[in-house]
Amino acid sequence: MPRSARPGVKRPKTVFKVGTYEELIPQADLVVNLTPDKQHSDVVRTVQPLMKDGAALGYSHGFNIVEVGEQIRKDITVVMVAPKCPGTEVREEYKRGFGVPTLIAVHPENDPKGEGMAIAKAWAAATGGHRAGRAGIVLSLRK
């Protein structure tokens, strides 16, 4: 059992806001869509009107954008951060102080301020991708 889960261990106060997606998305700088593929289009149609101008939309793969051709508002930056293993392994490696190899990409048609690569790198580093060895974070390109 992790030390923080043991009875009597004082836990740090959370810094996360809790609320419904309707309450939280309008404040978010990055909205991440990690739903199953079949739900992506419905989720994006639901959250896109709630997203503030200039926010970023993140995916863990590019199928919905590249193959389905989902249309995203032009003021929204679209990035992909794709760890090359299941989420449970990403978490376990992160807890050990490591990370897993991670692909990153920016949708060229949705990078209005040119900040997409910085957003993708920061998100990948936040999951520990930069600690996965020499090529921990790899740029993914589609021609």
TrEMBL record:
It holds the Pfam family KARI_N. Keywords: Isomerase, Oxidoreductase. Residues 1-140 form the KARI N-terminal Rossmann domain. It comes from Escherichia coli. The keyword Cytoplasm does not apply. The keyword Oxidoreductase applies. One of its GO terms (molecular function) is isomerase activity. Coiled coil: none annotated. This is Ketol-acid reductoisomerase. Its EC number is 1.1.1.86. GO terms for cellular component: cytosol. It comes from the Bacteria. InterPro entries: KARI (IPR013023), KARI_N (IPR013116), NAD(P)-bd_dom_sf (IPR036291). GO terms for biological process: isoleucine biosynthetic process; L-valine biosynthetic process.
